[in-house]
Amino acid sequence: MATPYCTPIRITDWSEPDDWDDAPKRLVLIDEAVAKAFSAPHQSTLEQRFREQAERWQRETAHLSSPLQRMMHPSYQAILGMGAEYKHEVVGFLLHDMQNNHRDWSLALSYLTHVNPISPKDAGRTDRIFDAWLNWGKQYGAI
User: Fold this and answer.
1) Distance CA 45, CA 5 (A)
2) Which residues contact 143 (CB under 8 A, 6 or more apart)?
3) To the nearest whole percent, how much of the chain has pLDDT over 70?
4) Where are the domains of the chain?
5) In this structure, what DSSP letter does residue 20 have?
6) Measuring CA to CA, which residue among 45, 44, 48, 42 is closest to residue 1?
7) pTM > 0.90
8) Coil, helix or strand for 9?
């Protein structure tokens, strides 16, 4: 069975609104992006597709301070979609990317694994959050 290919997606009217009145439109754009990502023929590995989406997500959201706005980006949603079908592999990719590129995937990891290894006293401390996830990944064989 061929794995769907996650094509790079350009949504020309993606912009950060001053308010969330256009949230339904944003959800439609995200749904379209995720559907498109899984409808193209298989042309690369799951890991390559993950990397493409992760790099695009970082490039297009690095200037945002709101975690919600960063999570609503189509590439982030596409990665979560990949995780729905290939959970173990995508969790491993997220952990490796967190370790090597220092991208914060803690919310995606919590969503996909249904766990939170972060101690309440470490809330807001990125280094401790990363350490908690990486230790969890080693303990459960995800990395």
Assistant:
1) 8
2) 92, 95, 96, 99, 134, 137
3) 70
4) 23-139
5) S
6) 42
7) no
8) coil
